[in-house]
Every structure is written in structure tokens, then in C-alpha cells.
Write a structure and sequence with these properties.
Blueprint (H helix, E strand, L loop, with lengths): L2 H18 L3 H4 L1 H14 L7 H17 L6 H14 L9 H7 L15 H8 L2 H16 L2 H16 L7 H19 L2 H15 L7 H19 L2 H17 L7 H19 L2 H17 L7 H19 L2 H16 L8 H19 L2 H15 L6 H18 L2 H20 L12 H11 L3 H11 L2 H9 L2 H9 L1 H12 L5 H13 L13 H6 L6 E6 L4 E7 L2 E6 L5 H17 L4 H19 L11 E5 L22 H4 L1 E4 L3 H10 L10 E5 L12 H11 L4 E4 L5 H7 L5 E5 L1 E3 L9 E3 L4 E3 H4 L9 E5 L17 H8 L3 E4 L6 H16 L5 H15 L4 H4 L3 E3 L2
Parallel strand pairs: 1-4, 4-5, 6-7, 6-8, 8-12, 12-13
Antiparallel strand pairs: 1-2, 2-3, 9-10, 10-11, 13-14
Helix pairs in contact: 1-3, 1-4, 3-4, 4-5, 5-6, 8-9, 9-10, 10-11, 10-12, 11-12, 12-13, 12-14, 13-14, 14-15, 14-16, 15-16, 16-17, 16-18, 17-18, 18-19, 18-20, 19-20, 20-21, 20-22, 21-22, 22-23, 25-26, 26-27, 33-37, 37-38
């Protein structure tokens, strides 16, 4: 029989097997005879007949998957030999299941939906677009170039948009789910993760798919990743269920069976971290061990199974302190690294896992040799992550903390600064929830800089790493970008497009574009972190106190007209700050006493700062201004009224007029917007809502709004049924002052949905994103929780007060926690009384209002600590 005849016969068998899944179709002696005959006809000239060679290899590979060990070895060897020669000419004809043996593959977290089975490859081969997508993915797997991955996604999207009988939508959706998850792992962009999940759900809708196990597992991985990113517990529970289904559906002889087990183990480990259910972690360890045991030594996925085993063993060691678990974690990590050659895209992740286990052991055992090895391993890992900011951030964070533990403060600060830059890049392209994974990173970086004696760098790192989302929002409306559009419009347009882009390759393009902009005269510092000189200039009106609480040391980094002054705060222990915050949260809920907390804040924080600055004798009419800039749990505590209130000389309130600012940059931006007089013909919008659905009535809300309008007769007033979201958003752009008297709500898990309860619905932070009010000066948010940030993003100050600052309001009066209706009314009334009397500074006016309430309720500090000023 000729080559064409044998080719036709074997293709028919493969196609029939893809439909019937009957092993006899390919294991029948006649099929083997055709294979041997085709090999003889080709006579080693595989590149002369690439299509025939591909079918020859596919048939042998499928036989390998069907035959028991050790009978399957010869077919595997033959298949690999065929495809090794074919890959140089026609890589599009080489299935992933074999490609993994031939060249380095994708990064540590790549998904099995792209590698699962030769039958899936046959589906992709039937579509030119999916074939092109697969070829692009292979180039990415070999080179790590994100532009190749982007091209693959574009081709697969085109295929899904035009499904055919031979290639239904679910087949393309399977590929897209994997591709988007790979890109999310590389770039951290959340929109890619959402798309991976959506396409994953499409993929599993085909219940009789031959690769259903891989599709189920792939969707489980995507949901697992979203849980890690956004903290949605339901996503994790679904992931565990999907991984169990994949294992139940797959055959134990499936080459991906070990990966299915490993994926379930990792999901169970994550759930243990969320629930502390020991059974989940113990099951995860046993599953991970099984995954390693059933994976052949030459299998390209073995390093993943070893890495996953190392992770769960490390977790159990940290729970129980069993040295066998630590030894097992380190051993698994070393084995994973050993089987990966230099340059393999998975090597950085394997080194990260090993370094993490070494660091955990070194910390627990005080083992200097193990610590030195951890530093060495993590330094190597960092070399391979230039194009993957999410992984780079993790590795650099581990390295910085290992170096700090080793006492190498210069390496520590350099590494943590690298991590901050990587986090900035992740967030800039849309994955803000990744910030929760790096809580405290900026504070640790600043502390390490202080350990080196570099106070300027400490201030710069503090500023760069806190309020990242706020900084990016303020950049969107900056004069610098407006100037760029005038000087270099095409470059400005490219910059804007990249900023809004969802493409994975944006990382490299972004860096190149920034370099080109900085080459322009006058734009040398474009988007550079604020320098110490810039930060110091903001202290012209009074000291700015950056409070830094870290595991390494705690300090007040104070910006003054005389320079940067550092005040050690040894009483500020991170664990105690967290405990004090949790206790305070309970007190707020029960309206309890906080005198002890205020005294502790004075002794540990405010007192040492004010004493160092020489603020020890306050005269009420001449109190100096001071700006507090806390972060982490400390940002949830009432620093502005810290003190022992039986002695005026030992209270913040009696010595300075306090304001808050989330970052120095926010203060600089607000000052730039407040150049005109506060009382210069204000256009006032007053809103009051007495009753909203399912809320406790606010008897004084409408009265409060009307009182504002009586003081300023030209005001616009929207109350009750007139106070709708649409009406308020329509009125805001024309008003320079706005006053809200209504309920407020801070959403701890989805900060952007925090808002002010109007008559029809919540006016949320999301609603304010596109609001930009020219010449806006004052926003008074007389509502609960309007300055309350999410504890998940404690370093970010994502709250209504900062949202109004981004919208253009220089000064914001807000409440970090609950406030009774009558107290809100009293503070508001006195505040505006002071402004009408001629007070130009809202902070001073608020100080007077709080002094009056304090005098009326001296034994109830919770009432008069509830309102703060944010701004210049």
C-alpha cells in the first residue's frame, strides 16, 4: 500500500477512535500492521511527508496512552522520535502532550487544558485558527514572549466567534480558557481571569467531551486563582468540587491523572488556609504524595507535582512543627529544581517554592545555613522573571524578607523595592486585588531602608508603596499627562492605549513607551516615584507624619521644613496594633469606652511624635497644623484624639489641629486644587435622606441639609424622594461644595461598592469614578463609615473620602466609623457656623466643632472621635 493509502487508513482509525473511544480501533493487529507499513514506506524521510509523519506519531502516542505498562514504552519512544524530527519543520503538527518532552514549556502555573490529550489536539487541528493559536502558544511556551501568547488568544477568539461543525464553540472555549489563565498568571490582569472562567464554563457545557476531565480541572484552576485574587470563598468551594469531578471522570492511566490529583491538593490547601480545617490539609498532603508517586520520572509534569507536594508539606510543617514535613518539603523542592534545566520557564517558580520552604525552616529553627541557601536560591529565581511581574513580586518579596532575616539590609531593601515596582506594574494593568497578597510590603521596605540609614529612601518607598490605586487614579487627571498630549500627541495616545490595554504583552511595551517619554525634555521624571525633595516640599504648612509599623522596626518618618526626621516607636508592635484594632472594632459595635485605647495611642505613637517636634504647650487660637499619614491597621485608629484627656498637655487635640492624608501625593494634589479661597462664592449642593429602604430612619438628615442651605441661600437642596442617584450625579459637576446627610456603608470585601445611601440606591465609589468636578473645594460626608477602608486593602485607603478627593474635592470631612444622628447634626451645624464666621481652614473649623461636642460629652470619646478632616 502507498503512503497515501496507509495515511488514509490510519486517519480513519484516529477519527473513529475520537468518536467511539474504543481502544480496539487502535490496538487491533491490523492497526499495528498499518503503522509498521507506513514507517517502512517513509523509510526515515519524515520531513518529506510531514502529514503522514504526524499521523504516524499520533497513532503511536494514542497507543501509548491505551496500553498498560511496560507494554506502552515502545510506542512512546517511537512517537517522541517522530515528533522530535517533525518539530523543526512543522511545529503545528506536534501535539502538546509530546511537545513537553521536546522543549521547555510554559511557566509554573500553565494549565492542563492546553496539554491534556491527543484527541484534543485533533480537535484543534481541524480548525486553521485554533491550529494557529496552538502554534502561537507553543512559541510562547518556548520563548516566554507574551506577544506570542497575545497572538494565540486573538486567533482562538476568532475561531470561537466562527464555530463550525468540526470545531464547535466548546473546543475553542477550552483553548481560550487555558490561554487566558496562562496570561493571567504571567501578568496578573484580572480581566483575563474572568475570561478564563467564562470560557471554562462554556467548555464544560459539552458533557460528553473526550477531554472533559481536563476541562473540569482547568475551570477549577481558574476559580482557584480568582479565590486567591479576590477572596471569594464560593469560588474555592467550586474549585474543590470541580477537581474531584475531574478525578472521578479521568482514568488512572490518563497521563494527566497526577495533575488532576495535584490540583485538588492545592485547592484543599487553600481552603485549609481559609477555614483552618485540618482535615483539608491532611488530605492535601496525601493527594500530593499520590500525584508524585503515579507520575513517571520522565514525565514533563513531575516538577509541578513535586512543587505542589513541597507546598502542602511546608504548610503542615508550619501547622504542626513536624521536622519530617519540613525535610519532605525541602527535598521535594530540590528534586523539582534538579530536573529543570537553566532557562526553563518553570524553573523560577520551582526555585520560589524551594526558597519558601528553606526560609520557613530557617525561621523556625534559627538555621543560618538554611537561611543563606534560601537567599541564594531566591536570588537565582529573580533572574528569570523580567516578563512576569506577578511572579517577580512574589520572589522579590521572599528574597527581601530572607535577606532581612540574614541581616543583609541592603539586599533586603533592594529586593523589596523590586517587589514594589512589580506590584505597581500588576496593579497598573488591572489586578488591584493582588495588593492584598502584599500587605505590609511597603512598610517592610521602608523599615529596611531605615536599617541602612537611608531616611530619604525610606520616605520614598513608604510613599511609593502605599495608596497605589489612589496614585494611579490621580495620575489619570494630572497636568503632566495633559502637557504630554500637547508636546507629543502620538506618544501620549500610545501611552493612553497601553494604559487601558488588556493585552499581556503590555508590560514590555509599557516600559519602552515610558522610556521614550522620559527622553523628552521636561518629562525626565514622568511617572517616577516622588523624590524625597518633592515630599519635603509638601511639609511647608506643617509636619507630615508617615507612620511605619513593620516586623523589623516601627517609626514615625516625619517630613518637616528642616528635613526628614525619624522617631523610633518601639512600643508599636505589629501584632499589638492588630489586636488593638480588633478590640476597637468591637467597641464601636457596642458603643463602649475607648479611653484606654486613646491613652495607648498617646504613649506609643502620638506623644513621642509631638514631644520630638516640640509641640508641648498648645494655645487654642494658635495651634499648629499637622498631617497624620498612617497605614495598615493603625489607619483604623483615632490618632487625632489620642491622649490622656484629663490633662490637656497630653492630648493631640490640645496641642495641634490634625488632618489626615492617605499619601503625601494626595495632599500635594489637593493643595494644587485649593488655590482659590474656600469661601469664594461657594455653589452648594445639600442632600438629605431621612428614610431609605431597610435602613433606620435619620430624623435629622433633612433638617441638616436644610440648615446648610439656609446658611448659603443659593444652595441646591435634594431631599428624600428628590435625592436620587441620577439627580445627585447630574448636580455635582456644577457645585463647589457638597453636603451629604444620609446613611453610609463601607463594604469590607468589595470596597468599590461602598457608598452613600440615597433614596433609590447606593451612590457608590464606582459611580464616582467618572466624576470630575472643576474648582471643587469641600465635600462634607455626614454619614457613617465614609472614611472606612477595607481591611483587605488596608494600605490603600479605598474609601468614600478619597473617592471624593479623586473627583476633585480638595477638602473632605468624613467619618471613619459610625456616628449618631444628633452628633452628626451638632458637628455639621458648628462646622458651618465657623466657616460663616470667617474660618478659611476646614480643619480649624472642624476642630472647633469637635471641641464643642467634647465639652458636652467629655465621658463619651467615641462620640467626638468620629469625624475627621482629609486634605490640605
Amino acid at each position: 500500500m502507498t503512503v497515501d493509502g496507509l495515511l488514509s487508513s490510519l486517519r480513519a482509525r484516529l477519527d473513529q477512535f475520537a468518536v467511539d473511544h474504543d481502544p480496539a480501533i487502535l490496538l487491533h493487529p491490523a492497526a499495528l500492521a498499518d503503522l509498521l507499513a507506513l514507517a517502512e514506506e517513509l523509510n526515515g524521510q519524515l520531513l518529506a511527508h510531514p502529514e503522514a509523519a504526524s499521523v504516524l506519531g499520533l497513532a503511536h502516542l494514542q497507543r501509548y496512552l491505551l496500553l498498560p505498562e511496560p507494554e506502552d514504552r515502545e510506542d512512546l519512544v517511537t512517537a517522541v522520535a517522530v515528533f522530535r524530527e517533525l518539530v523543526s519543520l512543522r511545529p503545528d503538527l506536534v501535539p502538546d502532550a509530546v511537545l513537553a518532552y521536546l522543549r521547555p514549556e510554559d511557566e509554573l502555573h500553565a494549565t492542563e487544558g492546553l496539554r491534556g490529550s491527543t484527541a484534543a489536539f485533533a480537535d484543534y487541528r481541524s480548525s486553521p485558527l485554533l491550529g494557529r493559536a496552538l502554534a502561537s502558544y507553543r512559541r510562547y511556551a518556548s520563548t516566554g514572549a507574551l506577544s506570542d501568547l497575545d497572538e494565540g488568544i486573538d486567533a482562538a477568539e476568532a475561531a470561537v466567534s466562527n464555530p463550525t461543525v468540526d470545531t464547535p464553540r466548546a473546543v475553542g472555549a477550552t483553548m481560550l480558557s487555558g490561554l487566558y489563565l496562562v496570561r493571567y498568571r504571567a501578568t496578573g490582569r484580572s480581566i483575563d481571569l474572568d475570561r478564563a472562567i467564562d470560557y471554562g464554563r462554556d467548555a464544560i457545557s459539552e458533557e460528553k467531551a473526550h477531554d472533559r476531565a481536563a476541562r473540569l480541572s482547568n475551570l477549577g484552576l481558574a476559580l482557584q486563582a480568582r479565590y486567591e485574587s479576590a477572596g471569594r470563598r464560593n469560588d474555592l468551594d467550586q474549585a474543590v468540587a470541580l477537581h474531584r469531578q475531574a478525578i472521578a471522570f479521568a482514568s488512572a492511566t490518563d497521563p494527566a491523572f497526577g495533575q488532576h490529583l495535584s490540583n485538588l491538593g492545592l485547592a484543599l490547601r487553600l481552603r485549609y488556609e481559609s477555614t483552618a480545617n485540618s482535615a483539608d490539609l491532611d488530605e492535601a498532603v496525601e493527594i500530593a504524595r499520590s500525584a508524585v508517586m503515579i507520575t513517571a520520572p520522565e514525565h514533563p509534569e513531575l516538577f509541578r507535582q513535586l512543587g505542589n507536594l513541597g507546598l502542602v508539606l511546608r504548610e503542615r510543617y508550619e501547622r504542626d512543627g513536624t521536622h519530617d514535613d519540613l525535610d519532605g518539603a525541602v527535598e521535594a523542592g530540590r528534586e523539582a529544581v534538579a530536573i529543570l534545566p537553566a532557562g526553563h520557564p518553570g524553573r523560577a517558580g520551582a526555585l520560589l517554592n524551594l526558597g519558601g520552604s528553606l526560609l520557613a525552616g530557617a525561621t523556625a529553627l534559627d538555621d543560618r545555613a538554611m537561611l543563606a541557601e534560601a537567599v541564594h536560591v531566591l536570588r537565582e529565581a529573580l533572574q528569570f522573571t523580567e516578563e512576569a511581574p506577578a511572579q517577580r513580586a512574589l520572589i522579590a518579596t521572599h528574597l527581601g524578607r530572607a535577606a532581612a532575616q540574614h541581616g543583609d539590609w541592603n539586599l533586603a531593601v533592594d529586593s523589596l523595592a523590586t517587589a514594589l515596582r512589580a506590584v505597581d506594574q500588576i496593579v497598573r494593568h488591572g489586578s488591584e486585588f493582588q495588593l492584598a497578597r502584599f500587605a505590609g510590603l511597603a512598610s517592610d521596605a521602608a523599615a529596611c531602608a531605615l536599617q541602612t540609614g537611608d531616611t530619604a529612601r525610606a520616605a520614598e518607598l513608604w510613599e511609593y508603596g502605599h495608596g497605589v490605586l489612589l496614585r494611579h487614579s490621580l495620575e489619570l487627571d494630572s497636568k503632566e499627562q495633559a502637557d504630554l498630549a500637547m508636546v507629543a500627541p502620538s506618544l501620549a495616545a500610545r501611552f493612553a492605549a497601553l494604559r487601558a490595554s488588556g493585552r499581556g504583552s503590555v508590560h514590555g511595551e509599557w516600559l519602552r513607551t515610558i522610556e521614550q517619554i522620559r527622553a523628552l525634555q521636561g518629562f525626565e521624571d514622568f511617572l517616577r516615584p516622588a523624590s524625597a525633595e518633592t515630599l519635603l516640599a509638601a511639609a511647608s504648612a506643617g509636619p507630615i507624619v508617615l507612620l511605619n509599623v513593620s516586623r523589623y522596626r516601627s517609626d514615625a518618618i516625619v517630613l518637616t521644613t528642616n528635613g526628614i526626621e525619624v522617631i523610633r516607636l518601639p512600643g508599636l508592635d505589629p501584632d499589638e496594633v492588630q489586636e488593638r484594632y480588633l478590640s476597637f472594632a468591637q467597641v464601636i459595635d457596642t458603643a463602649g469606652q475607648i479611653s484606654d485605647l486613646l491613652a495607648w495611642l498617646w504613649d506609643t505613637t502620638a506623644g513621642p511624635v509631638l514631644h520630638h517636634l516640640g509641640f508641648e504647650h498648645g494655645v487654642e487660637s494658635q495651634l499648629p497644623r499637622l498631617w497624620w499619614c498612617p497605614a495598615g491597621p493603625l489607619a483604623f485608629l483615632p490618632l487625632h484624639l489620642a491622649g490622656r484627656h484629663d490633662d490637656p498637655k497630653q492630648t493631640v487635640f490640645g496641642l495641634v489641629v490634625s488632618s489626615y492624608t492617605p499619601t503625601v501625593g494626595a495632599l500635594i494634589n489637593a493643595r494644587a486644587r485649593s488655590v482659590s479661597s474656600l469661601s469664594d462664592s461657594p455653589r452648594v449642593l445639600a442632600i438629605g435622606v431621612t428614610q431609605a429602604a431597610d435602613e433606620v430612619p435619620l430624623a435629622l438628615a433633612v433638617r441638616e441639609a436644610n440648615a446648610v442651605s439656609h446658611r448659603f441661600p443659593s444652595s441646591t437642596v435634594l431631599t428624600d424622594s428628590a435625592a436620587t442617584t441620577e439627580a445627585v450625579l447630574a448636580a455635582l459637576p456644577d457645585k463647589t461644595w457638597v453636603h451629604f446627610a444620609c446613611h453610609g456603608y463601607a463594604n469590607p470585601t468589595d470596597p468599590a461598592s461602598s457608598g452613600l445611601r440615597l433614596n433609590d440606591r447606593m451612590l457608590t465609589i464606582r459611580d464616582l469614578v467618572d466624576v470630575h468636578v472643576q474648582n471643587a473645594r469641600l465635600a462634607f460626608l455626614s454619614a457613617c463609615q465614609t472614611a472606612t477602608s477595607s481591611t483587605l486593602l488596608a494600605d490603600e485607603a479605598v474609601n468614600l473620602a478619597t473617592a471624593f478627593q479623586v473627583a476633585g474635592y480638595a477638602h473632605v470631612i468624613a467619618n471613619p466609623w459610625r456616628i449618631p444622628d444628633k452628633i452628626a447634626w451638632a458637628i455639621s451645624d458648628r462646622f458651618y457656623h465657623e466657616l460663616v464666621r470667617g474660618a478659611e481652614d476646614p480643619a480649624v473649623a472642624l476642630h472647633a466643632a469637635i471641641r464643642e461636642v467634647r465639652a458636652r460629652f467629655p465621658e463619651a470619646p467615641l462620640l467626638w472621635t468620629s469625624t475627621i478632616h482629609v486634605g490640605p
